[in-house]
Amino acid sequence: MKDCCNIKYLLLFMAILIGLFFVFKKKFIKKIRFNKTIISKVVSAKDKEVLKLLNKALADEWLAYYQYWVGSKIVKGEFSKEAVVEMVQHASDEKRHADMLTEHILKLGGIPILDFSKLEDISGCGYITPPALGDIKIILEQNIEAERCAVKFYKNFLTQLSENYQALKKDIEMILKDEEEHEVDLNVILKNIIE
Ligand SMILES: [Fe+2]
Ligand SMILES: [Fe+2]
Fold first, then answer.
1. Domain-by-domain residue ranges, the chain?
2. What is residue 14's predicted lDDT score, i.e. its pLDDT?
3. Cα angle vertex 84, ends 79, 89, to 5°?
4. Is residue 27 pLDDT above 60, yes or no?
5. Which of 101, 109, 129, 190 is least crowded, fewest Cβ atoms below 10 Å from its Cβ?
6. In the Cβ-directed half-sphere of 83, how many Cα atoms lie within 13 Å?
7. What is the pLDDT of residues 58-102, one digit of tens each?
8. Which residues of 80-103 are buried (b: 16+ CB within 10 A; e: fewer)?
9. How far is the CA of 90 from the centre of ligand 2 (A)?
10. What is the dihedral of CA 112, 114, 116, 122, to 10 degrees?
């Protein structure tokens, strides 16, 4: 009877040991996997430079988005209907650009700007406050200035990208094309107002 109880205790003890082994084994594997993730996200010096430019561009896109969005709400004057159509479309394009840039930031192991109050400091082109009275001519001129700055920025960005950044290069070229078209769209309306 005593031997029987001893065997039972021994079996119970072994079961506990096996259980503990599997619990700790799982945790150990998780730890190794976690470390591997960290290692794979080590960012090279060149990637760091590219990430800085990407976050600069991201700040510009958000500011451009807001500038178009708020402009479309307050713009007044002849051809304002046409201007609103363009501005709403451009705002949507700038938001799409922000999404594209963010995907590249994350792929490179970076973090998109988290502090919204830092957008203007980080941006390359800044924010041009639209006139409170919504003068269409001033708003269009401001947006054209912002687009010209964006075109210059993205052209320079492309010169910084080696063949190792093919996918990013392709996306920056697409964004640059959009910015050039934005400038043309706004100039068409401005020309109609002036003439
Ligand atoms: Fe944009
Ligand atoms: Fe634009």
1. 1-40, 43-194
2. 80
3. 135
4. no
5. 129
6. 30
7. 999 999 999 999 999 999 999 999 999 999 999 999 999 999 999
8. beebbebbeebbebbbebbebbbe
9. 6
10. -50
What architecture is the 43-194 domain classified under in CATH? Up-down Bundle (1.20)
Partners of residue 135 on adjacent β-strands: 76
Residue 76, SS3 per DSSP: strand
187 Cα distance to chain centroid: 28
Considering every ligand atom, which ligand is closest to the CA of 58? 1
- 112 phi-psi bin (left φ>0, alpha ψ -120 to 50, beta other): beta
Taking ligand 2, which is a single-atom ion, which protein residues have CB atoms under 5 Å away? 179, 182
State the distance from the centre of ligand 1 to the C-alpha of 37, rounded, in angstroms: 32
For the full predicted model, state whether its pTM sits above 0.85: no
